[in-house]
Structure formats: C-alpha cells, structure tokens
Write a structure and sequence with these properties.
Blueprint: H1 33-43, H2 56-72, E1 76-77, H3 81-90, E2 100-101, E3 107-108, E4 132-137, E5 143-147, E6 151-155, E7 163-164, E8 174-179, E9 185-189, E10 204-207, E11 231-237, E12 240-245, E13 248-253, E14 262-265, E15 289-294, E16 302-306, E17 316-321, E18 324-327, E19 344-348, E20 355-360, H4 362-367, E21 373-379, E22 388-392, H5 394-398, E23 420-423, E24 431-434, E25 438-441, E26 449-452, E27 481-489, E28 492-499, E29 502-507, E30 522-523, E31 538-541, E32 548-553, E33 559-562, E34 569-573, E35 580-583, E36 586-593, E37 599-602, E38 621-623, H6 627-631, E39 640-642, E40 650-653, E41 656-660, E42 673-677, E43 683-690, E44 693-699, E45 709-715, E46 722-723, E47 737-743, E48 746-754, E49 762-763, E50 772-775, E51 783-784, E52 794-799, E53 805-809, E54 812-816, E55 824-825, E56 835-840, E57 845-850, E58 855-859
Amino acid sequence: MAANGWRRRRRWVVLATTAALGLTVTQAQAQPQAHLHHQQMGLSAFTAADDDDGGEAQEEAEQADQYAEARTSPGIVAPGAYGAAYDALADLPHTKGSWSDLTRLPYDSDDPRYRDINSNSSGGSGKVTGRVTGLAADRHGYVYAGSANGGVFRSRTGGGHWTNISDGLPALSTGDLQLDGRGRLWYATGEANTSATSFLGTGVYVLDDPRDDSFSRRDRVGGDELESTSINALRFAGDKVWAATTRGVWSHSSRTLKGAWKLEFAPNPDYLPGGSKASDPSAAYKNIANDIAIDPKDPGKVVLAVGWRGGDTYNGFYVKSGGSWQRLTGLGDLPSNAEDVGNVTFARSADGSRYYAIDQSPEQTAENPDSGLEGIFVSKSGSPTGPWTKIADYKQLRDSGSALTGAGYQPGIQSWYDQFLTVDPKNPDHVYAGLEEVFETKDGGKSWSVPGPYWNFGFPCWSIDPSKQSGDCPATTHADQHSVAVGSDGGAPYVIVGDDGGVFKRPLNGSANADGHATDWTSLNDGTMDALQYYSVGVGNDPAGRGVAITGGLQDNGQSELRSGDRVMGSNFGGDGGDTITDPANGCNIAQEYVYLAVSVTNNCAVNDGSWVTDPSKATTYSVAPPDNATGEARFIAPLNADIKDPKVWVAGGRHVWINSKGYAIRSGSEWVGAYDLGAGHTATAVASSGGKVYAAWCGPCNNQGFTRGIAVGNADGTGWHQLTLPVDGTVPNRYLSGLAIDPANSDHVLLAVNGFSRKWTEGPGAGVGHLFETRDGGVTWKDISGNLPDVPANSVALLKGGTIALGTDLGVLVRMPGSASWKAAGGNLPTTAVLQLRTGPDGRLYAATHGRGIWAIDVRRLR
C-alpha cells in the first residue's frame, strides 16, 4: 500500500463499490432515486458512507496490491521461482482419477432467471468468461486469445470453438500476445497490468506454426532472465524484439532464439534482483516499463514509456542518445514530467504516418475524483518523438455517449488498469481505444463515439424485462478493456476486444445506433474458453432435482450458478464475487461476498424476475454485511466460512472475528456478533471453525513494510480468545497464512497453509521455509509437514475423509495419503493454474476453484 501512496477511501461500502478487480455496478444504481432511498434502508446492499469524493478507483488501486502480497511479502520473488516449482511438480507421481471441468459451458451474465436486486443480469454483456489480456488475429480467420491465468486459446473460426494451446507451459498468465511478420505467435507470460490477481510469468515463448501446433517449454526465447517478472508489451524492430517488463526493458534477437535476453534499460538497477536494494520494500515498483514505440522510418530510434502507475521520479519517456538512455522533453501536448506519465500504451498506423498514445497520469489518478486519464494523443509525423497533439481528454470521451457520466466515475478512472489502442490497417485516422469502455474515432480524434459502453443500465433503452436481454439496448462488451486485435476472414475485417469478461467481436467498420453504441457486437465466449477466475466455490444438493448446485465467486463476473441439468450457467450476483458459503443440504441457500465482507444471502438461488424494481418487497437477496465492511477493516477478498459441524454458524474475518448463528435466516448485518478484535491494523486472511472452536489467521501490516502475521483462537460465543505465540525459530514462517483446516474428530488438530516462496526464492526478511504446518495441541506447538512438497505458494488446504490432505497451490492440487510422507499431484489433467479454494461436496467429490480455468471436481475415492 505504501508503495503507491494511495489513500484508502470509501464511497459505496457494499455492493456498488466499483472495483479494480471487478468493475460491474448493480441494477440498483440505474434505478430512480425514489427506489434508492428504500434500498439504502436495508433491501439492497447499496449503502452510502464516508466521503463522497469518488475515490473508489484509488481505493481499488490500493487493494490491487493485496493479492500480490500473499505471494511476495515480506520480500520480492527472485527469477526462477516458478520454473523450479514447476520442475519439482513435474517430478511427482500422479494419483489415479481425472478431474472434470464443470464450468466449460456458456456463462450468461444476462441470464433472465437471475434478475434480483444484486444481480447484473440485463447489463448487456451476454455470455462471458475470464479476463483476456492478449489478442492476436490473422487474415485467415485464426484468432488467439491469452487469458489472465488460463493460457492461450486458438480459434480457427474467427472466434469461438476455442482450443487451449499452452497447457504444456509452466506459466499460464498472459502479458502480451503478438503475431510477427513471419506468422509466428509470440507469447509473453506474466500479466503486467498491476491488478490484484496478476501472476508472474516464466518468460517469452514462440510458436512457429500457431495454426496447428501447441506451445511447449522448448519454445522459450532465451534463458531464465525474464522468469518471475511480468511483461506488458512485445514490440518488433528489424531483427530485434523488445520487451517492456516490470523489471525494465529487455531485447533479444528475433531470428536466433537462443542466448540470453539483454537488459537495455532499468531506471533503478540497484532495485533489481541481486542488486544492493533488492530487498527494499519499494523494489517491485522501481523499474516498471509499460510500452515501447519504434520509429517506422528508423528502427534504431526507440522510445521507452517507463513508470509506476502510482507515480515515481523516474516516470517518463526515454530515448537513447550518446550511448545512454535520456529522458525526453518537448514532446508537445504529451507530458514529459514524471507526475503526468504513468501507464502508457502506443499504437502506430500501418502506413507509418501516425503514432497514437494513451497516457494515465499519476497526479490525476491521485487528485481527480473523476478520472486518472491524461489523454489520448497523436503524432502526425509518425515519429514517436512527436510533436504530439492531444485528441481526447476524459470529458470529451464522457460526452461522446459514455455510460460513465456521474461524478466520481468517468472515462479513464481506471486507466492505470484498463488500456488498449489499435489503428485500422487501411485507415490511419480510424482508431479504437479501450479504457473502461470501447471508444472509436474515424477522423483522427476530431470526434469520438462509444461503440462499447460500460453497461446498458441508465440508458433510456434499458429494461430489466426477463424476456429481453437489456430492453431495447443493443448488446455491449463487458467492462474493463485490456487487449485488441484486427483480423479478417475472406476479406471481411473485424475488430476483437479482450476485457474482464472475455472476447467480443464486431466488423471493423460496424454499425451503430443514434447514440454511437454498436449494434453488432458478438460474444465469442461460447464456453469452450473456460478462463473463469474463481476466488471460491460452494456446493450443495440441488433442491429442484438430482445432483448438486455449484456456485462460486469470480473476478468481475459476480457469482456463477450452475444447477443440475443446466446447459448454460447464470449469474445471480453482480460485481466481484468473493468468498462463498453454500448449504450442503440445499444448494440454493447461499451466502456470497462482494468485496470487503459485503455479504449477501439468498434462499432461492436469487431467482427473480425483476419485479423488485417496482415492489422492493419482492427482492430475494438480502445485505448482511458485518460491521467491518462499513469501516473498511477487511481485506478485498475477506475470509468467510461455516462451522464444519454446524452449518448455521458462520465465521467472517476482518479486523474482528464475526459470528452469525442464524445461518441462512440472517437478514441484517447487525445480527453478526463480534467474537474477537484481532487488533488495529490486523486483518483476517483465513478462518475456520469446528463445533464452535474458531481459528483466525491474520496479517498486519500485510505488505513488505513491517510484515507481521499471527493466529487467534477462541470460541464462537466470544470466550477463551487469545493470540497464539507462533514460533520465532522459523517453524512457522513469517509469511502470509492463507488456509486453515480443522480435523472434525479433534478441534485441536489443525492444518495451516502458508503462501509465498521459501527464503531460497524470496529476497527479504523472514521468508522461512515450508508451506504446510500441523498442530495437534490447538496451536501451542507446530510441525512442518511439507516434506517433498514443491516450493510453490499454497492457497487452501482440505482434510479429506480417511486423513488424506489436499493442498491447493498456484500450480494445481497436491495430495498426501494417510501414513505417507510423500506428495502426489491430484489426477493427471488439471491445468497448472492457481487453485484458490478447495471444498468437498455432499456428493463425495473434491471441488477446486481455479483462478483462471474455472471449477473442477474429482472423486475423492479415486485419489490413490
């Protein structure tokens, strides 16, 4: 947090908070003020609070660091960490049994079954999947999509009918995806948008024949120089490829793929791994490069856009002069001062006559409650050194048909997170720009339209009517734009955009209505690209039929609901979906967290026809947020769990440990009872309860500056609480405590999962060793039972029947059988993506919520 300097602010403290991990706003925000008044009295999780200064995006930028903290604090990850973990994992034997990909089917964000008060259904995005951060397309209908943490998917049909072509790689996190002049596909791993769920990568890979082949480890360019970093952009010049990374700018021959990458420029090299300041708390923010612009008339003239989105003295544009890199000034309208150069994206026209740029301003982001966008610019000389002219600011974009016209949330408010830019290959004045929405100009920036508005809520054409998608409004894209490509098939050109909801396509010169909103978007998310990013999973018997109902919280895609017999999943809650509790006896009893413990509960799977709009009493979802939500004293994705012996007893963790003993009958946040105060500055990271005995792991501070962690133990009735004295000899590392599992037969027997890497791969104090620890005396003493466990961040632990231990890690699920000291990989077909939560279902299967490849399940009896 201190690294970027954001001040924590709250405008809407429950469901309408717009989040960096999820920018979806509920239908409640689109309703007339008369309805809002009633909703604020308790029917909706829509509550005004604190300073109404529009600081949501700044707050979410701060919270974006929290996910990385679990893996890095207190230090930074050194190159080679993920590669070594993958190698160790590959050496392990596999159990019997195969995983089933349960969510590889269409996910309809506008499912007419779920139009309850806290749903985003009818917003207009249609079928969605997870965040897509890289796109490439050719002239023959081939499209390649790189997902945030699910790898690369190929379509031979202009989008849809996707096949994964990267599951043979150790990293499935996408930074960039590019086709070069020879038709080769370059895959830069490590998502670099500095969001909370961005994962590090293992370098750059090249596929000679992307139409038919798949990536393998032997396709890596260079050595391990770019391991454990993130790559924002790849750019080509002559026989050289350039990479803008979170550890400076690097280059490599694009002809000879062997040999090491060359570090071209790092503004603060002492902060790189191995440097004298590598363990400094701000090291991860000191060498961020965002993009590279190459003069089409002189490939030797290269401009680097460098800088941390939160602002730093090194931020700026650099060009090589006299053998060294010098800061550029005098660029015209494009700023060169550090305060106004943040996240930058370049694009040039095919004929070399134009260069375009989007610039996010750290100063605007910090001080302007409406937007952090400095502007969109053009260099009509075609040179990246300018002179540059501003062709749009956020006000012009706002007034061009945007859905974001209200105070506190206007175009570019999250330009540190949302950016893409591309130019029509046949028209240098025709540009698509992506921020929260999709913008288009056909006259070089003299005028703009919004073919892809943020949502359809608020527009006169919108309706909640279940018989329509979103009334008379045309379909739109999902919010939060990250990637773009122009392709064609049979001579028909199209533009494809990637955002927090997957991939959407329209003709390059498409049609639009009178508002400038496109009428011809097509969702390419047909279910074959299961890139959904789950934080959690809940399973219960389906009360309406045989089988189970499966639900889970997602990054910016709400809560998915999959009932027995469904061929299409629906979304019954909106925004970001956090942790989940589901009644094993009745899968339609669900408690779902938005963010910061913004918990809602429903007893009918949130099935609703939208009649609550005119009759609020017909809402079937209730806000039951614990008090730490209102004060902001909870983590972005805060822990929520049910007692393993009494499903009516829930535990929620913020600064305090909160207890609900009414189960799914709870109707108000005031019904939570505070059991224990973890202490000022401390926030819960994991909670578990058995028979009324509660364990709560916490951190605080949670970043590199003074990182501390602990565990509190007590009873649900508020008695017997105390802080455990964790060993100072390193038996339990000073790292993020991410998971707890209690033995149902003995509440003093507890398993503890620890995130991050050991001290071998973490540069910083207190890293310790091991990832799984056990106590049999209620936390008085602990034993490291990691054994031959690969050194990989651990996120969740489950104790299965018979004593088998299952551990969810950043590279899949590992199991250890009772009586064995060795680990096995669970099954043989689970992708090597992050598993954030493990739950057992009433059907005897183990469910894994992956953050990038959906929900998977395996029969526990097959884990042998």
